[in-house]
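ugh ok fine here u go
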Amino acid sequence: MTRLRIRLTACACVLAFVVVGLGAFTRLVDAGLGCPDWPGCYGHMLWPNSEHEIASAENLYPHAPVDTDKTWPEMVHRYFAGGLGLVILALAVLAHKHRRPPQKLPWLLVLLVIVQALFGMWTVTLKLWPQVVTAHLLGGFATLALLWLCFLRCREQAQAEAGTNSASGPVLSRSLKGAALIGLLVVIGQIALGGWTSSNYAALACIDLPTCHGVWWPETDFAQGFNLAQTLGPNYLGGLMDNQARTAIHLSHRLGAVLVTAILLVLATLLWRSGWRDLRRLGAVLVLVLALQVGLGITNILAALPLAVAVAHNGVGAVLLLTLVTINYRIYRRGVITIKI
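structure:
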């Protein structure tokens, strides 16, 4: 049964990664309002495709003409997300039935999926309100991270049952534990900044590097750029902020990337010095993923946000988050601190 849970959790992780990627694709092709209703699309279970269906849909929603290039990404994303929810529910039922750890984590994931469904609905009904879009993105990353944590726990349980998870080695330093936790927190913060940048269409607010608009510190409006109390709608497709506000958001994300890079390089150095072979390998993986993510970010700016690169930037950001989750999990499960979920 443990093997079944491992396989099912691994499948859920893959599916969650696909859902995160589809969400990024949907945002980047401006398909967030491809369907004006929820959970269907113009009253259809899939999306209107034939001439008759399109005519009927436009008669039902005269304010929202059908664009088939935007309806299918939205509905494909919804169906993959729905499938993920069913897999997570199956994991929770298995955990409850067989009473093996982790037991609470799968039910937490079920609750998170329900909240994600609500945010998905509000994304449409509130017309891409940036606060909701960003929260929806963070919820997707959180779902993926918690599924990965569940996978690590299930695999550890299998090793415990087989008697193969004992290990001894150098004592881990407090600086390593602190750096790992800080690294995880700053990556989460940077992902939130990236979501805010995307939902406010600020990715191309600066199109030059290392300067912005040809200067080191351009005119910015941080008060507007990070005004979380902004009023609703009527429609945020394309964004409603002025250039100075978008520049402030973009600049914050760029400076955040510099901070994250510095902290993660320090963490990688500490991992290499830890004396543990698996932590050294994770340090090497961290550097490689970080380098790829920085390269994709630079390419997004210089090449004017190519779709494939932008989606990849989102996906590698997810891989970076999972790498930090794995590092923290390995450190805390060394016996220094035990986590029970």
